[in-house]
Design a protein that fits this description.
This protein is α+β, with helices and mostly antiparallel strands. The chain is 13% helix and 25% strand.
Length: 202
């Protein structure tokens, strides 16, 4: 069945607190029309980062060249390099000019699986293609060149194809943060029982 993947979420969707936006991104579809083949995956796991009020956020200590996209308009794509080897991708949120963001942690591959398999050659199963923030970014070919792309205009966007977010999402503390750096906040949201979800917090 054909999916409606052309209409991006509007900027007003992102112009809110990240903890409002994050659970509503579940079951939305990340789409890339770069290159010769469309790549798309349904978002099933996210984490909210609340800017200057959140010690786990890259923007906690203010604007830098690395995090400048977080201080831009809601609806931008913020990509960053981590652990000296991986890229990760975030949807920039508001409200207003506050530097909130939602980390895209995991997704269900829908379209362009052959492209994803080439990019993620170590993935043993299709469910491993986008199961984790670094894997998702790699499957979509995201890197520094994509930082600042407008998700409301494309060529990379997030769309609503009609599947509603879960009425009761899974909720937990965020993964991978150091003690005292926002690791206690329950701002990770995921689709319960989905096999593509990346993991559980320690």
């Amino acid at each position: 069945m054909a999916r409606r993947l052309n209409r991006a979420l509007p900027r007003r969707f992102y112009d809110r607190d990240a903890i409002e936006v994050a659970p509503e991104l579940l079951n939305k579809v990340l789409v890339s029309d770069e290159g010769d083949e469309r790549v798309a995956a349904r978002i099933v796991e996210v984490e909210a980062y609340r800017g200057l009020d959140d010690p786990g956020s890259h923007s906690y200590r203010g604007r830098t060249p690395r995090n400048a996209t977080m201080f831009g308009p809601p609806g931008g794509l913020y990509t960053y390099f981590t652990y000296g080897m991986h890229w990760c991708a975030n949807a920039v949120c508001g409200p207003g000019e506050q530097p909130h963001a939602v980390l895209l942690r995991a997704a269900v591959p829908l379209d362009g699986l052959d492209v994803m398999r080439v990019r993620r050659v170590k993935a043993r199963r299709d469910r491993d293609l986008c199961a984790g923030p670094a894997r998702l970014a790699q499957a979509f070919g995201l890197d520094r060149a994509h930082d600042g792309i407008d998700l409301t205009r494309g060529p990379i966007r997030i769309v609503d194809d009609g599947m509603a977010p879960p009425d009761v999402p899974g909720v937990s503390a965020r993964i991978g943060l150091a003690p005292g750096k926002g690791d206690e906040f329950p701002w990770r949201y995921y689709v319960l029982s989905d096999p593509n979800v990346s993991g559980r917090p320690r």
